[in-house]
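Notebook, bench 3.
Goal today: get a predicted structure for UPF0178 protein DL346_15200 from Paenibacillus montanisoli so we can plan the truncation constructs. The sequence was checked against the plasmid map this morning, with no discrepancies at the termini. Length recorded as 153 residues. Pasting the sequence as submitted so the record is complete.
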Amino acid sequence: MSEKPTIVVDADACPVKSEIVEVARNFAVPVLMVASHDHRLQEEPGVSIMQVDRSDQSVDLYIANHVLRGDIVVTQDFGLATIVLSKGAIALSPRGQQYDDSNIDYLMERRHELAKKRRGGGRTKGPKAMSGEDRERFQQKLTKVLQTRQENA
């Protein structure tokens, strides 16, 4: 594991970008926001921006090809989470859930079942709106992950 991880963000639809930057600054950890050219992101101290083309999987492919063991990836995409876990990275959802070997198979299976239902004409609920509680839970989880890394370094 590298001494200082990078927080890598699947930034196209990430609702907690400002929370990530705030926590990262507290730990002096660099942030890399990866988004398609459709999203306008501003570089700021400690935050790098990588813009990729608009194709469906460009952000995921960039992250999968550049993430390092020990990095922390923030994504809502279970498929990307599976890939980064296999590379030794930590994967968090924007709601503060940590993806790991104990839950990722279930999440992938559930995603598959819901997609099958939709293809068959069924309806499924989308995710509930982000709440202040969700944002706080995310900040607490990211802080805990970074504190644990710092203590184990």
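Strands lie at 7-10, 31-36, 47-52, 72-74, 90-92, 98-99. The mean pLDDT is 87.
Flagging this for group meeting.
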